[in-house]
Amino acid sequence: MGQVCSRHSSKLLVALLLFGLVTGWVGAQAPTPPAAKQTTAPSPAPASKPAGSALETPEPANKVVLKVGDQQFTKAEMDALIEDLPPQTQQAIAAQGKKQFGDYYSLSVMLSKRAKAEHLDQTPEFARRAAFQKQQLEAQIEINQLAKVPPEEIQQYYTAHADTYDEILVRQIIIRKRPPEPKSNPETTAPTTPPPTVHLGWVGSGDAIVRAKLEKNPKVSGLTVQNTQADFKFAGSDEELSVILGGLISAGVKVLNFNEAKGVHPPGPIGSLGLAPDEAKARAQAIRKELLAGVDFNKLNEEFKPPEVAIDHEPRKVRRGGMRPDLEKVAFALKDGEVSDPVDINAGFILFQVIGHSRVDLKDASAEIERKLRQTKADAAVAEVKKNNPVWMDDQYFAPPTKPQQGPVPGAPGANIPPRP
């Protein structure tokens, strides 16, 4: 039948078969490949299209696109196989082309034919595994059926929760204030303490920037970065900590709070991390006045600079639910063009200037709503099935291992359903 693939791709195909990297496809297919069509004499090559033809005729569904020995497969049959693959595999095929899938499928057809010739499909192992895979496929089809979401339910959910899709185009300005300097007692010798813990918070993206900058600093230890929050020990001075804050802001991190749990800090004056509380509030009010007067932002950035002041150069779009609840209440109450009063956030004062309001339309929100409703329906369906089908397990046989096993355990799908194809 000619050479199907190169030596390198053959090794890759064998690895795919051995380890099942085309997830869900081998098990989801019936043990027998699609019925082969009888080999017929090849049709004469179609006449070439006239030069300058603007429109190309779509390929017919019954066009033969793959031949494996005496079997041949049409475009419709191959398209149906690809549609049955998991979404992530379909995306990979769309990006990389169908060639590798064709190589993989032709090899599986060849090996399947050989396995049947050797009667491997009649062994107890084959019957057991085929039954298990069939059960998994049935369970997956059932959960998908139970979790179907018709378009009218998406519309109803959107109408009932319309305000959750409100958005604002907002610019924020942060004026940092420093904590009060701890009172010292000249008669008492300060005990030696470990480096203080610094808590950093920001909005939007920034996790990768924060991690990259702090990991390189030799005076930073115990760093944890997760979900717009970072905590770390800092063994340097306040001036050095101020440089870190300024660097993060310059790199585009929208700092929301920057708090230090201070004990006795290493030698170095307090003062460069921000402004005194009263001065910070006065600075916030001055900036608000200029914003209301329509000041040019380039001028504002020249007049008020980090690390004491952090100003968004460009407004950003924020959807309801994307901010701290107390700050969201302030920002979403503003009308277009309004500027909020300074809001005390402990580490400083924050101002919001709302440029405009909008709402995510139904078309853009549909996929998100469908996923949410599908998950809700799947959870309810699984709970109902479990309620009506009591399960008993032998505690000794199903006892947890001494050490947790690595990797997922195969089984029927639960409530975490995949996206709709």
Explain the overall architecture.
It is built from 13 helices and 11 strands. With 421 residues, it is α+β, with helices and mostly antiparallel strands. Among the domains are: 7-35 and 60-118, no CATH class; 166-181 and 192-359, Chitinase A, domain 3 (Roll), CATH 3.10.50.40. Strands 3, 8, 9, 10 and 11 form a 5-stranded antiparallel beta sheet that branches. A 4-stranded antiparallel beta sheet has the order 5-6-4-7, covered by helices on one side. A two-stranded antiparallel sheet has the order 1-2. Helix 1 packs across helix 5. The protein starts with 6 loop residues before the first helix and ends in a 33-residue tail after the last helix. Residues 1-54 and 262-272 have low confidence and may be disordered.
Descriptive key words:
five-stranded antiparallel β-sheet, 11 strands, 421 residues, alpha+beta, 13 helices, disordered N terminus, single chain
Give the name of the CATH architecture of the domain at 166-181 and 192-359: Roll
- Broad shape: elongated
Q: What is the tally of beta strands?
A: 11
- What is the CATH C-level name of the domain at 166-181 and 192-359? Alpha Beta
If you consult CATH, what is the topology of the domain at 166-181 and 192-359? Chitinase A, domain 3
Detail the poorly predicted runs: 1-54, 262-272
Q: Which secondary-structure class do the elements indicate?
A: alpha+beta
Along the chain, the helix and strand elements come as HHEEHHHHHEEHEEHEHHEEHEEH
Provide the residue-averaged pLDDT.
78
Query: What does the main sheet amount to?
Result: 5 strands, antiparallel
Distance between the termini: 35 Å
> Percent helix among the residues?
25-40%
Number of helices: 13
Measured by DSSP, the beta-strand proportion falls in: 15-25%
Radius of gyration: 32 Å
